[in-house]
Amino acid sequence: MHRIIIDGNAFYEIDEECVRRKQEKEAEKQRQIEKTEQKTMTQKAMVLTRSESWDDR
Prior knowledge:
By secondary structure, the chain is α+β, with helices and mostly antiparallel strands. The protein is rod-shaped. A two-stranded antiparallel sheet has the order 1-2. It contains one helix and two strands; from the N terminus they run E-E-H. The chain starts with a strand and ends with a helix.
């Protein structure tokens, strides 16, 4: 489906399916970034926990 936008003398046609696919792609990219950040935080926490247990010796 296409959306027609008229702005003064300018005429735009927007492919809504393309916009939807782009938004889904961006959302997936954001989910991957958050997943990577979570994995990094978990790894850092594991390293800190290990270093703390070494300090207990």
